[in-house]
Amino acid sequence: MSTQLSISIGQSSDKGAKDQNEDFYGVFLAEDTALENKGIAAAIADGMGSCANAREASEQCVKGFLSDYFSTPETWTVKTSGAKVLTAINNWLLSKGGKDNVHGMVTTFSALVFKSTTAHIFHIGDSRIYRFRNGDLELLTKDHRVWISEKKNYLSRAMGIDSHLDIDYKAVNAEVGDLYIMTTDGVHDYLDDSQIKQHLLSDGALDVVADEINMHAIKEKSHDNVTCQIIRIDSLPSQDANEVYNELTRLPFPPHLGPGMTMDGYEILEEIHASTTSQLYKVRDKESGQLFIMKTPSVNYSDDPAYIERFYMEEWAGKRIQSDTIIKIIDQTRQRNFLYFIMEHIEGITLKQWMKQNTIPDIETVIEITNKIIKGLRVFHRLEMLHRDLKPENIMITEHGVVKIIDFGSVKIAGVQEISTPVERIELLGTKNYTAPEYLLGTEGSNRSDIYSLGVLVYEMLSGHLPYGEKMSRDLNWRTLNKIKYQSSIKYNPMIPLWMDGAIHKAVKKDARLRYETFSEFLHDLTHPNTTFNNQVSPLIESNPVLFWKSATIAMLLLNLVLIYFLTT
Q1: Would the pLDDT of 563 be above 90?
Q2: How far apart are CA 373 and CA 470, in angstroms?
Q3: What would the pLDDT profile of 195-249 be if each residue is shown by its tens digit?
Q4: Do 174 and 45 share a structural domain?
Q5: Is residue 324 domain-shared with residue 461, that is, in the same domain?
Q6: pLDDT tens digits, residue range 114-158?
Q7: What does the pLDDT look like over 18-73, one tens digit per residue?
Q8: How far, in Å, CA of 235 to CA of 133, rounded?
Q9: Are 43 and 64 in contact (CB under 8 A)?
Q10: Are 460 and 355 spatial neighbours (Cβ–Cβ below 8 Å)?
Q11: Residue 100 pLDDT > 50, yes or no?
Q12: Of 168, 302, 357, 403, which sits most exposed with the smallest number of CB within 10 A?
């Protein structure tokens, strides 16, 4: 039986010995799909009392994080979402501090985000997060406090101090029954671990326990505000494999479709592509008359839950991408009776067809197409997605020069990878000769993996060949990879400048660490001569094979004449 993430909360805060309470805390309980994709968040902050607007700083930090975190894309990881939100809040605090009092909005900040079966921790300052499990109390954070003497200390890190925000982040496995305790220094500076633990061992309600911890700290002569949050994990997401399979197979695979047939209000006009994994049909919506593309799964995988999950995920990801450089997934208003999804119809040709029609392309046109592909890939990367299967067949070019990426069935979504599932997620290798070597070797990919695939496309557009020929295979290993050598694009197209070939070579380096880090670096070197590449001497057999063999023939002739001379004298 499926269960969801659920927690119980106990919270208490008091101004203690101070005139006002400058601590702030909060919890946001997401619901429905947001609970699965973003989780539950709790935060605590302690405004620096020596600064102006300490209370406002702590309040805005907690409220801002709990609001903005859940507004970040579902495709982002918790780490990315939290870091970007905290950086924005930190910049806001600095701007509000004013030029005369730059430390007017300073606060500590600690947060817990529970997503799937993991607890994610963000920490800046000297508030604390503990975990109480099986009778053991463990401190999960480190105080960012520097001691000058036995009585004097200062915060080395806090929100609103510096434009460079150094955040401690860690992820720990969560278990049912775990207690997470969040406190400000008015509590933990006056209660040791054994005293806190004693309260946690009581059977009282969590609110009562949190309040008792605070009152104990005040009794121990705490001269600060006191705040305590206790969060208990009551249940974690779990799914029965059979139940997941039944849900994935709720919609049957469509039958074989042909022109003239109708399915769910779509008239099939023609099959435009078929492979071992899917089919694409040009269809007409019988209600609106609009043309669309329908993608259906291959019946070869009707009993493969991993394949079906990926098929659903392709539609899920596409609906979260809004870009003119990527094909649009259409929201359907009618009920679906079969498994498929609908995409916009694009009139044009694939990049593969374009290359066949432009065997000797203009370099500027190739650069223009490359720039448009980069715009699409940047959208994926900003959403923490890796395309992983960039190839000529997955790119369309219209008669007006519009370039669109049309397939993302192999996309890896960082945020989704954090969600536990009984379905085994098999890493897709992409397409031979276009996929980065690290995928073929079974290692993790990165943004540089997509840069590799783009480099191969640029090479092929300019030369009509592949940088490593047909030698990249699925049974690749490090030994065979080291034997495969890059072939200069100039060998096939002497019009390519040496510096441009150098840029392409760097983009398709077999070792990902040696490639470009960003698309902008690659594009810059494709359009601006890099003297580093100009200084590289290209072998004559690559740069001018005709001259090489002519020279070699003349050299051999001269050598033979010399040998004949010595033999006859």
Answers
A1: no
A2: 24
A3: 999 999 998 899 999 999 999 999 999 999 999 999 999 999 987 777 777 888 8
A4: yes
A5: no
A6: 999 999 999 999 999 999 999 999 999 999 988 777 777 788 999
A7: 999 999 999 999 998 999 999 999 999 999 877 878 999 999 999 999 999 999 99
A8: 15
A9: no
A10: yes
A11: no
A12: 357
List the one residue out of 133, 212, 215 whose CA is nearest residue 174.
133
**408-447 pLDDT per residue, tens:** 889 999 999 999 888 877 766 678 899 999 998 888 899 9
- Up-side HSE of residue 330: CA atoms within 13 Å toward CB? 17
| Helix, strand, coil share of the chain (percent; to 5) | 40, 20, 40
For the chain, the average pLDDT equals 91
76, part of any domain: yes
* Partners of residue 270 on adjacent β-strands: 282
DSSP secondary structure of 294-342: EEEE-GGGTT-HHHHHHHHHHHHHHHT---TTBPPBPPP-SPPSSS-EE
Structural domains of the chain, count: 3
CATH of the domain at 12: 3.60.40.10
Confidence of residue 470 (pLDDT cuts 50, 70, 90): confident
Is residue 266 domain-shared with residue 374, that is, in the same domain? no
C-alpha span between 92 and 89 (Å, rounded): 5
**Beta 109-115 vs 40-46: how paired, if at all?**
antiparallel
Residues 390 and 467 in one domain: yes
Pairing status of strand 118-124 against strand 128-133? unpaired
Q: Could you give the 3-state DSSP secondary structure of residue 23? A: strand
CB 262, CB 43: distance < 8 Å: no
In three state form, how does the secondary structure of 490-534 look? HHCCCCCCHHHHHHHHHHCCCCHHHCCCCHHHHHHHHHCCCHHHH
Per-residue pLDDT at 536: 58
Instruction: Compute the distance between CA of residue 183 and CA of residue 202 in angstroms, rounded to an integer.
Output: 18
d(CA 205, CA 221): 25
User: CB within 8 A of 324, min separation 6: which ones?
Assistant: 402, 404
Tell me the one-letter amino acid at 258: G
Are 214 and 277 in the same domain? Answer: no
State how far the Cα of 516 lies from the Cα of 496, in Å rounded to an integer: 20
* Token representation of residue 562: 């010399």
Residue type for position 193: D
Q: What value, to the nearest 5°, has the Cα angle with vertex 244 and ends 242 and 245?
A: 65
CATH number of the domain within which 273 lies:
3.30.200.20
Confidence (pTM):
0.87
DSSP character at residue 489: G
Residue with tokens 């990878």: 417
CB atoms within 10 A of CB 426: 10
For residue 318, give the amino acid letter. G
